[in-house]
Protein backbone atom coordinates (compact mmCIF):
# COMPACT_ATOMS: atom_id res chain seq x y z
CA UNK A 1 0.00 0.00 0.00
CA UNK A 2 1.29 3.46 -0.93
CA UNK A 3 1.41 6.37 1.46
CA UNK A 4 -0.27 8.57 -1.16
CA UNK A 5 -2.18 7.69 -4.32
CA UNK A 6 -2.43 10.49 -6.90
CA UNK A 7 -5.13 10.49 -9.59
CA UNK A 8 -4.10 12.56 -12.59
CA UNK A 9 -0.74 12.68 -14.34
CA UNK A 10 -0.61 16.28 -15.51
CA UNK A 11 1.94 18.77 -14.27
CA UNK A 12 0.05 19.12 -10.96
CA UNK A 13 -0.01 15.36 -10.33
CA UNK A 14 3.60 14.83 -11.36
CA UNK A 15 4.96 17.73 -9.31
CA UNK A 16 2.99 16.47 -6.32
CA UNK A 17 4.50 13.00 -6.76
CA UNK A 18 8.00 14.46 -7.11
CA UNK A 19 7.74 16.49 -3.91
CA UNK A 20 6.26 13.60 -1.95
CA UNK A 21 8.96 11.25 -3.20
CA UNK A 22 11.63 13.79 -2.26
CA UNK A 23 10.11 13.70 1.24
CA UNK A 24 10.48 9.90 1.41
CA UNK A 25 6.86 8.93 0.76
CA UNK A 26 5.76 5.86 -1.20
CA UNK A 27 3.70 7.26 -4.07
CA UNK A 28 1.48 5.73 -6.74
CA UNK A 29 0.35 7.95 -9.61
CA UNK A 30 -2.60 6.79 -11.73
CA UNK A 31 -3.23 8.34 -15.15
CA UNK A 32 -5.98 7.31 -17.55
CA UNK A 33 -3.78 8.14 -20.56
CA UNK A 34 -0.11 9.12 -20.69
CA UNK A 35 1.34 11.54 -18.18
CA UNK A 36 1.61 15.14 -19.32
CA UNK A 37 -0.49 14.79 -22.47
CA UNK A 38 -3.61 16.84 -21.67
CA UNK A 39 -3.78 20.52 -20.62
CA UNK A 40 -0.20 20.43 -19.35
CA UNK A 41 0.95 19.68 -22.88
CA UNK A 42 -1.48 21.97 -24.69
CA UNK A 43 -0.70 25.32 -23.04
CA UNK A 44 1.82 27.98 -23.90
CA UNK A 45 4.18 27.82 -20.94
CA UNK A 46 4.26 31.46 -19.83
CA UNK A 47 5.30 31.42 -16.16
CA UNK A 48 2.88 34.15 -15.10
CA UNK A 49 -0.81 34.93 -15.41
CA UNK A 50 -1.29 36.87 -18.65
CA UNK A 51 -2.30 40.05 -16.83
CA UNK A 52 -1.24 39.34 -13.23
CA UNK A 53 -2.58 42.60 -11.80
CA UNK A 54 -6.13 41.48 -12.65
CA UNK A 55 -6.07 38.50 -10.28
CA UNK A 56 -6.90 38.12 -6.60
CA UNK A 57 -4.08 38.32 -4.08
CA UNK A 58 -4.08 34.57 -3.26
CA UNK A 59 -3.36 33.76 -6.91
CA UNK A 60 -0.61 36.40 -6.96
CA UNK A 61 0.98 34.76 -3.91
CA UNK A 62 1.10 31.37 -5.63
CA UNK A 63 2.32 32.93 -8.85
CA UNK A 64 5.19 34.84 -7.25
CA UNK A 65 6.47 31.73 -5.49
CA UNK A 66 6.17 29.55 -8.57
CA UNK A 67 7.93 32.06 -10.78
CA UNK A 68 10.92 31.93 -8.48
CA UNK A 69 10.90 28.13 -8.37
CA UNK A 70 10.94 27.42 -12.10
CA UNK A 71 14.61 28.20 -12.89
CA UNK A 72 15.82 25.77 -10.21
CA UNK A 73 13.26 23.12 -11.15
CA UNK A 74 14.19 23.31 -14.84
CA UNK A 75 17.89 23.01 -14.05
CA UNK A 76 17.28 20.08 -11.70
CA UNK A 77 15.26 18.16 -14.27
CA UNK A 78 17.83 18.79 -16.99
CA UNK A 79 20.63 17.45 -14.79
CA UNK A 80 18.62 14.44 -13.59
CA UNK A 81 17.00 13.41 -16.87
CA UNK A 82 18.91 15.01 -19.73
CA UNK A 83 15.61 16.52 -20.95
CA UNK A 84 15.70 20.32 -21.12
CA UNK A 85 12.41 22.02 -20.12
CA UNK A 86 13.80 25.08 -21.92
CA UNK A 87 13.15 27.66 -19.26
CA UNK A 88 13.72 31.06 -20.93
CA UNK A 89 13.81 34.33 -19.00
CA UNK A 90 13.66 36.92 -21.78
CA UNK A 91 10.87 39.10 -20.43
CA UNK A 92 7.42 40.00 -21.73
CA UNK A 93 6.22 42.97 -23.77
CA UNK A 94 2.62 44.07 -23.17
CA UNK A 95 1.05 45.98 -26.06
CA UNK A 96 -2.24 47.92 -25.98
CA UNK A 97 -2.83 47.63 -22.22
CA UNK A 98 -5.95 49.63 -21.34
CA UNK A 99 -5.40 49.54 -17.56
CA UNK A 100 -1.78 50.64 -17.40
CA UNK A 101 -2.15 52.57 -14.15
CA UNK A 102 -3.56 49.50 -12.40
CA UNK A 103 -0.69 47.44 -13.76
CA UNK A 104 1.96 49.91 -12.63
CA UNK A 105 0.34 50.28 -9.21
CA UNK A 106 0.30 46.50 -8.78
CA UNK A 107 3.97 46.33 -9.79
CA UNK A 108 4.95 48.95 -7.23
CA UNK A 109 3.06 47.12 -4.51
CA UNK A 110 4.55 43.74 -5.46
CA UNK A 111 8.06 45.05 -6.08
CA UNK A 112 7.93 43.86 -9.69
CA UNK A 113 10.09 45.51 -12.37
CA UNK A 114 7.20 46.41 -14.67
CA UNK A 115 7.55 49.73 -16.46
CA UNK A 116 6.24 51.83 -19.32
CA UNK A 117 8.50 51.87 -22.39
CA UNK A 118 8.38 53.83 -25.62
CA UNK A 119 7.76 52.42 -29.10
CA UNK A 120 11.45 52.78 -29.95
CA UNK A 121 12.32 50.47 -27.05
CA UNK A 122 9.94 47.81 -28.40
CA UNK A 123 11.46 48.11 -31.88
CA UNK A 124 14.94 47.76 -30.44
CA UNK A 125 14.02 44.63 -28.48
CA UNK A 126 11.78 43.08 -31.14
CA UNK A 127 12.23 44.64 -34.58
CA UNK A 128 9.59 42.40 -36.18
CA UNK A 129 6.85 43.32 -33.71
CA UNK A 130 4.35 45.92 -34.92
CA UNK A 131 3.56 48.55 -32.30
CA UNK A 132 0.62 50.87 -32.95
CA UNK A 133 0.71 52.86 -29.70
CA UNK A 134 3.35 55.20 -28.34
CA UNK A 135 3.87 53.18 -25.19
CA UNK A 136 4.00 49.58 -24.03
CA UNK A 137 4.73 47.79 -20.77
CA UNK A 138 7.84 45.70 -20.19
CA UNK A 139 8.51 43.07 -17.51
CA UNK A 140 12.12 41.92 -17.96
CA UNK A 141 12.05 39.10 -15.39
CA UNK A 142 9.19 37.08 -16.82
CA UNK A 143 10.03 33.62 -18.11
CA UNK A 144 8.50 30.77 -20.06
CA UNK A 145 8.98 27.03 -20.16
CA UNK A 146 8.47 24.53 -22.97
CA UNK A 147 5.65 22.68 -21.26
CA UNK A 148 5.65 19.45 -23.34
CA UNK A 149 9.31 18.96 -22.45
CA UNK A 150 8.66 19.88 -18.83
CA UNK A 151 6.10 17.06 -18.78
CA UNK A 152 8.56 14.66 -20.41
CA UNK A 153 11.24 15.55 -17.87
CA UNK A 154 8.93 15.15 -14.88
CA UNK A 155 7.73 11.78 -16.17
CA UNK A 156 11.29 10.57 -16.76
CA UNK A 157 12.34 11.63 -13.27
CA UNK A 158 9.41 9.88 -11.62
CA UNK A 159 10.07 6.68 -13.58
CA UNK A 160 13.60 6.67 -12.16
CA UNK A 161 12.54 7.11 -8.52
CA UNK A 162 12.27 3.81 -6.60
CA UNK A 163 9.50 5.06 -4.30
CA UNK A 164 7.22 6.14 -7.18
CA UNK A 165 4.96 3.84 -9.20
CA UNK A 166 3.45 5.21 -12.41
CA UNK A 167 0.34 3.48 -13.71
CA UNK A 168 -0.57 4.88 -17.11
CA UNK A 169 -3.52 3.83 -19.30
CA UNK A 170 -5.19 3.12 -15.98
CA UNK A 171 -8.59 4.75 -15.59
CA UNK A 172 -10.21 5.07 -12.17
CA UNK A 173 -13.60 3.35 -12.19
CA UNK A 174 -14.62 3.90 -8.59
CA UNK A 175 -13.47 4.44 -5.03
CA UNK A 176 -12.99 1.90 -2.27
CA UNK A 177 -14.55 2.90 1.03
CA UNK A 178 -14.46 1.46 4.51
CA UNK A 179 -16.30 2.90 7.48
CA UNK A 180 -17.30 5.94 5.46
CA UNK A 181 -13.68 6.74 4.55
CA UNK A 182 -12.09 6.42 1.12
CA UNK A 183 -9.22 3.94 1.24
CA UNK A 184 -8.34 3.46 -2.41
CA UNK A 185 -9.59 3.13 -5.98
CA UNK A 186 -10.85 0.50 -8.36
CA UNK A 187 -9.23 0.54 -11.80
CA UNK A 188 -9.12 -1.64 -14.89
CA UNK A 189 -5.74 -2.84 -13.61
CA UNK A 190 -7.10 -3.80 -10.21
CA UNK A 191 -7.61 -2.30 -6.78
CA UNK A 192 -5.14 0.18 -5.31
CA UNK A 193 -5.04 1.22 -1.65
CA UNK A 194 -3.35 4.19 -0.04
CA UNK A 195 -3.28 6.09 3.21
CA UNK A 196 -4.19 9.34 1.45
CA UNK A 197 -5.61 10.18 -1.97
CA UNK A 198 -4.97 13.24 -4.10
CA UNK A 199 -7.31 13.98 -7.00
CA UNK A 200 -5.85 16.35 -9.57
CA UNK A 201 -7.53 15.38 -12.81
CA UNK A 202 -7.78 18.87 -14.29
CA UNK A 203 -11.04 19.41 -16.17
CA UNK A 204 -12.05 15.81 -15.35
CA UNK A 205 -11.81 16.27 -11.56
CA UNK A 206 -15.48 17.12 -11.11
CA UNK A 207 -16.50 13.86 -12.80
CA UNK A 208 -14.28 11.86 -10.46
CA UNK A 209 -15.66 13.58 -7.39
CA UNK A 210 -19.21 13.04 -8.57
CA UNK A 211 -18.62 9.33 -7.90
CA UNK A 212 -18.24 10.35 -4.25
CA UNK A 213 -21.36 12.53 -4.50
CA UNK A 214 -19.25 15.67 -4.16
CA UNK A 215 -20.08 18.56 -6.46
CA UNK A 216 -16.98 20.46 -7.57
CA UNK A 217 -17.57 23.65 -9.61
CA UNK A 218 -14.87 22.91 -12.20
CA UNK A 219 -15.66 22.68 -15.92
CA UNK A 220 -13.69 22.24 -19.17
CA UNK A 221 -12.88 25.41 -21.13
CA UNK A 222 -11.37 24.72 -24.54
CA UNK A 223 -8.39 26.66 -25.81
CA UNK A 224 -7.14 26.37 -29.38
CA UNK A 225 -3.56 27.30 -30.31
CA UNK A 226 -1.36 27.30 -33.37
CA UNK A 227 2.38 27.24 -33.98
CA UNK A 228 4.24 28.77 -36.91
CA UNK A 229 7.50 27.40 -38.19
CA UNK A 230 9.35 30.70 -38.25
CA UNK A 231 12.98 31.68 -38.88
CA UNK A 232 15.04 31.17 -35.76
CA UNK A 233 15.19 34.42 -33.81
CA UNK A 234 12.28 36.12 -35.58
CA UNK A 235 10.91 36.88 -32.10
CA UNK A 236 12.98 36.49 -28.94
CA UNK A 237 10.46 37.33 -26.23
CA UNK A 238 6.88 36.71 -25.24
CA UNK A 239 4.64 39.43 -26.66
CA UNK A 240 1.06 39.95 -25.48
CA UNK A 241 -1.56 42.08 -27.20
CA UNK A 242 -5.31 42.24 -26.65
CA UNK A 243 -5.35 38.94 -24.78
CA UNK A 244 -3.43 37.01 -27.47
CA UNK A 245 0.24 36.11 -27.21
CA UNK A 246 3.19 34.83 -29.21
CA UNK A 247 5.79 32.64 -27.51
CA UNK A 248 9.11 31.75 -29.16
CA UNK A 249 10.75 28.35 -28.84
CA UNK A 250 14.44 27.57 -29.25
CA UNK A 251 13.95 25.78 -32.59
CA UNK A 252 12.02 28.54 -34.36
CA UNK A 253 8.50 27.42 -33.49
CA UNK A 254 6.36 30.41 -32.56
CA UNK A 255 3.27 29.56 -30.50
CA UNK A 256 0.14 31.68 -30.69
CA UNK A 257 -2.82 31.48 -28.34
CA UNK A 258 -5.44 31.15 -27.42
CA UNK A 259 -9.20 30.85 -27.69
CA UNK A 260 -11.69 30.55 -24.82
CA UNK A 261 -14.59 28.22 -25.68
CA UNK A 262 -17.35 26.61 -23.65
CA UNK A 263 -17.78 23.37 -25.60
CA UNK A 264 -17.70 20.71 -22.91
CA UNK A 265 -15.11 18.00 -23.46
CA UNK A 266 -14.82 18.61 -27.20
CA UNK A 267 -11.15 19.05 -28.20
CA UNK A 268 -11.68 19.46 -31.94
CA UNK A 269 -10.09 22.34 -33.87
CA UNK A 270 -11.83 24.47 -36.47
CA UNK A 271 -11.13 26.88 -39.31
CA UNK A 272 -12.70 29.89 -37.58
CA UNK A 273 -10.32 29.64 -34.63
CA UNK A 274 -7.38 29.10 -36.99
CA UNK A 275 -8.25 32.26 -38.90
CA UNK A 276 -8.70 34.27 -35.69
CA UNK A 277 -5.39 33.11 -34.24
CA UNK A 278 -3.57 33.81 -37.52
CA UNK A 279 -5.04 37.29 -37.65
CA UNK A 280 -3.90 38.04 -34.09
CA UNK A 281 -0.44 36.63 -34.68
CA UNK A 282 0.12 38.51 -37.93
CA UNK A 283 -1.03 41.77 -36.38
CA UNK A 284 1.63 41.32 -33.71
CA UNK A 285 4.35 40.00 -36.06
CA UNK A 286 3.51 40.89 -39.69
CA UNK A 287 6.38 38.74 -41.03
CA UNK A 288 4.40 35.65 -39.97
CA UNK A 289 2.26 36.14 -43.08
CA UNK A 290 5.16 34.55 -44.95
CA UNK A 291 5.50 31.59 -42.54
CA UNK A 292 3.56 28.31 -42.54
CA UNK A 293 1.35 27.21 -39.67
CA UNK A 294 2.93 23.94 -38.62
CA UNK A 295 0.51 22.85 -35.88
CA UNK A 296 -3.02 23.53 -34.67
CA UNK A 297 -4.37 21.90 -31.51
CA UNK A 298 -6.73 22.29 -28.57
CA UNK A 299 -6.70 21.54 -24.86
CA UNK A 300 -9.16 21.73 -21.98
CA UNK A 301 -8.55 24.06 -19.07
CA UNK A 302 -10.16 23.35 -15.67
CA UNK A 303 -12.34 26.44 -15.26
CA UNK A 304 -13.40 27.45 -11.75
CA UNK A 305 -15.12 30.40 -10.04
CA UNK A 306 -12.77 33.40 -10.30
CA UNK A 307 -10.02 31.04 -11.47
CA UNK A 308 -9.21 30.23 -7.84
CA UNK A 309 -8.04 26.61 -7.47
CA UNK A 310 -9.29 24.16 -4.87
CA UNK A 311 -6.36 22.90 -2.79
CA UNK A 312 -6.87 20.76 0.30
CA UNK A 313 -8.89 18.00 1.95
CA UNK A 314 -12.54 17.47 1.19
CA UNK A 315 -14.99 18.32 3.97
CA UNK A 316 -15.80 15.21 6.02
CA UNK A 317 -13.25 13.18 4.00
CA UNK A 318 -9.93 14.08 5.64
CA UNK A 319 -7.94 11.51 3.63
CA UNK A 320 -9.09 12.78 0.22
CA UNK A 321 -7.35 15.88 -1.13
CA UNK A 322 -7.89 17.79 -4.34
CA UNK A 323 -5.75 20.20 -6.34
CA UNK A 324 -7.79 21.41 -9.30
CA UNK A 325 -9.48 24.40 -10.90
CA UNK A 326 -6.43 26.45 -11.90
CA UNK A 327 -8.20 27.57 -15.11
CA UNK A 328 -5.58 29.27 -17.34
CA UNK A 329 -2.81 29.10 -14.73
CA UNK A 330 -2.15 25.42 -14.05
CA UNK A 331 1.43 25.52 -15.27
CA UNK A 332 1.91 28.99 -13.80
CA UNK A 333 0.88 27.98 -10.30
CA UNK A 334 1.98 24.34 -10.26
CA UNK A 335 5.19 24.56 -8.17
CA UNK A 336 3.49 26.58 -5.42
CA UNK A 337 0.07 24.89 -5.44
CA UNK A 338 1.63 21.43 -5.24
CA UNK A 339 3.99 22.57 -2.48
CA UNK A 340 1.01 23.95 -0.57
CA UNK A 341 -0.86 20.66 -0.93
CA UNK A 342 2.15 18.59 0.12
CA UNK A 343 2.51 20.84 3.16
CA UNK A 344 -1.01 19.78 4.15
CA UNK A 345 -0.45 16.10 3.35
CA UNK A 346 2.69 15.98 5.50
CA UNK A 347 1.42 18.35 8.23
CA UNK A 348 4.17 20.88 7.54
CA UNK A 349 3.96 24.61 8.09
CA UNK A 350 2.21 25.81 4.92
CA UNK A 351 4.00 27.80 2.28
CA UNK A 352 1.28 30.47 2.42
CA UNK A 353 -2.10 30.71 4.09
CA UNK A 354 -4.12 27.79 2.63
CA UNK A 355 -7.51 29.16 3.69
CA UNK A 356 -8.50 30.87 0.40
CA UNK A 357 -7.97 27.62 -1.52
CA UNK A 358 -9.59 25.08 0.78
CA UNK A 359 -12.57 23.16 -0.70
CA UNK A 360 -14.98 24.27 1.98
CA UNK A 361 -18.70 23.52 1.74
CA UNK A 362 -19.28 27.20 0.92
CA UNK A 363 -16.84 27.16 -2.01
CA UNK A 364 -18.12 23.82 -3.29
CA UNK A 365 -21.64 25.22 -3.41
CA UNK A 366 -20.71 28.11 -5.71
CA UNK A 367 -21.67 28.22 -9.36
CA UNK A 368 -18.92 27.26 -11.81
CA UNK A 369 -19.52 30.26 -14.09
Detailed description of the structure:
It is an enzyme of class 1 (oxidoreductase). Keywords: Oxidoreductase. Its EC number is 1.4.3.19. This is Glycine oxidase ThiO. The protein has 369 residues and is of the alpha/beta class. Helix content is 31%, strand content 27%. The chain has 10 helices and 16 strands. The protein has helices at residues 11-22, 39-42, 57-81, 100-110, 119-125, 147-159, 205-211, 271-284, 330-345, 361-364; strands at residues 2-7, 27-30, 92-95, 115-118, 135-139, 164-167, 172-178, 181-187, 190-199, 219-229, 238-241, 244-248, 253-257, 293-303, 310-314, 317-324. Strands 1, 2, 6, 7, 8, 9, 15 and 16 form an 8-stranded mixed β-sheet that branches. It has an 8-stranded mixed β-sheet with strand order 4-5-3-11-12-13-10-14, sandwiched between helices. Strand 7 (172-178) and strand 8 (181-187) form a beta hairpin. Helix 1 (11-22) runs parallel beside helix 6 (147-159) and helix 1 (11-22) runs parallel beside helix 9.
